[in-house]
Amino acid sequence: MNRMKRVIFRVDASVQMGMGHLTRCLTLANILAEGRTASCFLMRSHAAALAPLIQSYGHLVRLLPDPQVSNPQAANSDQSYAHWLPTTWQQDAEQTFQVMEEIGPADWLVVDHYSLDVNWENACRRHGLRILVIDDLADRPHDCEILLDQNLVQQMETRYRERVSHSCVQLLGPRYALLRPEFVEQRRLLSGRSGDIGRILVCFGGSDPTNDTAKALQAIASLGSPEIAVDVVIGQSNPHAKSIAQLCDELPRAQVHRSANNMAELMRRADLSIGAGGGMSWERCCLGLPAVVVDIAANQVSALAALAHAGAALYLGSSSSVTAEALADAIRSLQAEPARVKVLGEAALALVDGQGSGRVRLELTSRF
Question: Has this prediction a pTM greater than 0.70?
């Protein structure tokens, strides 16, 4: 009897990193499980609180021990994300290798981590398994069979040309966005949006370290539109949960959703979203949700600029420079132009069909 196929995911998550990397890996693991492929997640021990979430889907979790001292290379490195790894890449690769030896043969190693590159990937090849890299920075070389970048950016087709081998299969653009099945289900339930704004969804990711959620709520409060319903989604790791709840209490029709498990439904019901970039951009597009967006990290800028260029979002700029007043002005302008809101949603809907997870699964399983 053939053994069950196995995929290993090397990914981390934290308030600083956000939940996006883990979310997209978990989405891929879940759709692979439908074809009887087992997954094991390797994460640093600082992410131990997230293990029950991963295990609730039936996946194995192994925590890599964090060192007692910080990574000495990170303090002196020019690499923007080196500090995301609390140890050296060599030790991380060795620990990863040890776990792979313990759990037995695997068919693919999926790595989604800004602090790891071709050196780590070369070291992990001692098992002879194939590697899928999930990236969206295009700032370092990779040694992999498949590279996935689900973002819409300028020069998308060429920016990895010098960073991967000629034989590497590149899956580029939101056609390969790793969205959960519920987004496809809710897309089928969509009815035409009128462009009128009666319900606003506010979400800046699971952790929102810059607390842009509060800024958005202050903007909505200043509109003087008590009839607008507001859904506010924050994660368990959000450090500002108490103050956000207080701001929502001051709005007549605001509701806080903590770690919502019905995000797709909330997006379908909303008429406008206020949020950041990352994976949520493609979720909003899949449901044709018009959005006012700011970037909360440098790696979100190019994708949000491309979305704005495609007419699929109103991009205001960086969180550090966008005020509550600027957000309020943007919402007021859209309130006055329902036709513009409708066009934003239609452009977004045309970009993402929600089938990306299936396409990535096919690429992996066809090479088992």
Answer: yes
